[in-house]
Structure of Luciferase-like monooxygenase:
Amino acid sequence: MIPISILDLVRIRQGSDARNALDHARDLALHAEGWNYRRFWMAEHHNMRGIASAATSVAIAHVAAGTSTIRVGAGGVMLPNHAPLVIAEQFGTLAALFPGRIDLGLGRAPGTDQITTRALRRDPASAESFPQDVLELQAFLAPAEPDQRIVAVPGHGSKVPLWILGSSTFGSRLAAEFGLPYAFASHFAPDSLEMALQLYRAQFKPSEQQAKPHAMVGINIIAADTDAEARRLATTQQMSFTDMHRGVRGLSKPPIDDIETYWSPLEKAQASHMLACSIIGSPETVREGLERFLLRTGADELMIVSDIFDHKARLHSYEIIADVARGVEPIPMSI
């Protein structure tokens, strides 16, 4: 079985609120645990009315407290927004509360716009120090040296697993150099997928954390009992991406019967390009799509986004995906 995990956007729906979104995330994680998903990740986004996971470590604690075995983590924390010591303390605390279950994925994008970056009191140029910040964070999570003057408490000695996230070859090269697992954001930025994976595998250097490369690849999957129903459910995500191109970051919208009435031809092309790594359909359609995607990427693990408005329909989608994945094997990719 191909290992599968979930990236939850913690969408705030029209007619609902942030508490509801966070409780739905927790409920989804509990169900996913029973369906043998490996991880449940949330991402840091700021100044977005439709996403409730800005305080990512707090959201992780909420979800982890409602589950017992599934790994819960950040996919990811945008490290340029934070001092590495603070992140080491936050995730060290999470590791103390939920031992053996916390992941820490790291990105170098701000996760927001430039105005909000200034509101975060961060220098936009801080992304340039991302490699050094990763090493600093890794050192804070390692066992403290006897003469170490600054110690993350909690955090030191926790060795919370680090992941490098990316949507370009920069992240793949860095993950390979540091010997860390790599997650590629092809669920919204598919352009460099094959090249990034190729470079990561070819340049990987074994480390204490990771003996061999491990590539997790993001993909959108909207599953339902029929292709037609899945296509209808997928319009929620398609409208979100259309709105993003319009400069509108609103709440998640209920699906519509005909997406062609919502977007222009240009908007359709833009959104469809960003959502190119998507599978939409019935169980059989999902199975065929998964097999093609694994043949294309050789992914060691899939990080699945099923961005559906109705919570019950979203649960059903993830259950279908889990059922299908049980019969789909990884396809090793030669370097």
In short: Strands lie at 4-8, 39-42, 71-78, 102-107, 162-166, 182-184, 215-223, 278-281, 301-305. The chain has eleven helices and nine strands. The chain has a mean pLDDT of 95.
